[in-house]
Each structure stands twice: as structure tokens, then as C-alpha cells.
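Okay, can you check this protein?
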Amino acid sequence: MLDGLGGTILTLGDNAYPDGTTADFANCYASTWGRHLSRTYPSAGNHEYETAGAAAYFAYFGDRAGNPGEGWYSFDLGAWHLIALNSNCEAIGGCGPDSPQAEWLRADLAEHPTTCTLAYWHHPRWSSGDEHGSDPRTDALWQILFTAGADLVLTGHDHVYERFVPMDASGAAAPAGAAAPTGMTEFVVGTGGRSLYAFGALLPTSATHDNATYGVLQLTLLADAYDWEFVSASGTRFADSGSADCR
């Protein structure tokens, strides 16, 4: 699929099963997604940390993964500012409002006041997945991004696809009908190849969901808006697409 899709690739963690070892990256990742390493910007999942300090992950991706021991970084892509965060909170000094990562995030957002901002990490703040579900450890990151006017959050961890309506700082549906969007939209895209999980009770903000289809999320980042499309694996039928303006 990636061979036929251009553009920049973001990974949402758990890049190489089962333990994120050097052998896992060599045997499982390098020959598949690794063919597109030069255009990939990763984030770390919990399986990377099955290897102490996610050492093999940081060695494989090098500077693209951020500093070892941190794993957060940012870059500009066209008119957008993109931010990779590390939701393996226990391994990096926490994810709370006073954590090193949260302090860095506030400073990074202040230094990059772009019209459109996208952040991505592994453990979803909001998820209807039955295996893991919503993860409150990342709440401070969500709050900081919302306050700064960020637009998109991409996550994984639950092996499902789920798109949420734009939400406010508390995860409630943001008011609709305003001249510009007032909420931040999260996607859970855990459909990259491992076995798929079940859903539990759907959150009231869940806009669409699927747990029977492998695929990737394709985003077209415009100057002040974005388009999305779930690109499913050959022979599968689930589809989700749309457009939205930046906040």
C-alpha cells in the first residue's frame, strides 16, 4: 500500500512486534515499512519499550525519533506544524502538566504559531476500544494542545479505526455551527497489520468506527484545512473520508 502512496509517513507506535528488538526491526519492519524509512517520522509505542529504553527503536530511526530518553520532537510540513509525542509516560518522567515533555510542548507550540497543527502519539486519550480504551495519562498533552488551538491528534494502541467528532478540552463534543471549528479531532488508527481488537461501549463522541479492516489514514494537509481518507487494504470495503477547516 505504501509503495503506491506518496508523501510523508507518520507511525503511531508499536512499529515492530513483538518486543521492538534490533532483530524485530530487521526482520519485521525493515523489509516492509522500512522501504520508506527516508520519508518516515515515527512515534514510540509500548512494545518498543519491551526493549530497555526502547534502545533498538532509537537506534533504527536515529535522529528522526528524537533524543533517546525523550522521544518527542516537531517539524514543519508545508503550512502545518507536526508534533510527535511520547505517551510511554513512565519511561520519560511522566506526561503530567509539569513533566519535561509537557514543558517542552508548551514552548514548542509558542514558538510555532501556525494556522494548522497536528500531534501524534501511541496511547489514545479517547478510544472506544475494548482492549485498552481511553488513557487519562495523556490528558495534560491533550489540554495543552487544545488550548494552543491544535487541530488533529493521531493515535494507535487499540487495533481499530475510530474517528471522533471535534472535542473540547474535556473530551465533550465541541459546539457546532460556528464560523470556524472550535474542537480538536482525534483519530485512532491501529490498523497497520497486527490482529484487530473488539470495541466496547462506543463513546458518545465517536463519529465512525471499524475493527474488520486493515489500512492506513491518508491526510492531505492544505494551507488552512485538511482532507482525510481511510485507505483500506485490497478487497475490503470500509471507507471514511471528509474535509475540515483548521481552528
